[in-house]
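> call design_seq(struct)
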């Protein structure tokens, strides 16, 4: 581990072995679901291998981003580029582009950032900060609002993609909901 305390084996919870054995059930229950990956400097050498491994487990959409904190080292940019090239080659050579997605290759990446949301992450992890917001911390509040707005937009984009893909019924004043007991998509008005 880079930081923190290494747990004793008997104290470990949520290890890779525990998680990976449940992936088939998760995919059976949520076949169109995706996974989220966040990388930092130490993870760069494993990007290609990790994404391909997730594909091999049956996960068809890997949403991946880098941490926004200052953890990067000199030369990481070159290693990162090399890993992206390896991953792109593997996706093309293996034909993964037909049925799999990796957000590193999204058409929306690489465009100029909006001045209002510049340097904001899009993972939504900041939502837990709502519990520590105070009236005198307007900068944190504004960052949280921007992050929630971007996350909401990404969430809506997912609904729009899935509705187009599955031809869901639509209504001008309606919204879709998921019945998690039956996994049905319901239109409510």
């Amino acid at each position: 581990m880079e930081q923190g305390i290494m747990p004793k084996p008997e104290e470990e919870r949520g290890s890779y072995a525990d998680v990976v054995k449940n992936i088939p059930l998760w995919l059976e229950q949520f076949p169109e679901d995706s996974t989220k990956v966040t990388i930092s400097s130490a993870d760069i050498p494993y990007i290609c291998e990790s994404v391909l491994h997730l594909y091999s487990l049956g996960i068809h959409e890997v949403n991946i981003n880098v941490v926004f904190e200052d953890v990067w080292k000199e030369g990481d940019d070159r290693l990162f580029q090399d890993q992206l090239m390896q991953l792109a080659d593997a996706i093309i050579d293996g034909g993964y582009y037909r049925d799999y997605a990796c957000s590193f290759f999204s058409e929306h990446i690489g465009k100029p950032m909006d001045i209002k949301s510049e340097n904001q992450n899009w993972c939504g992890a900041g939502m837990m900060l709502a519990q520590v917001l105070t009236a005198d911390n307007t900068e944190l509040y504004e960052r949280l609002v921007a992050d929630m707005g971007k996350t909401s937009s990404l969430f809506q984009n997912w609904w729009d993609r899935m509705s187009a893909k599955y031809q869901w019924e639509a209504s001008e004043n309606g919204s879709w909901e998921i019945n998690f007991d039956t996994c049905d998509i319901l239109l409510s008005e």
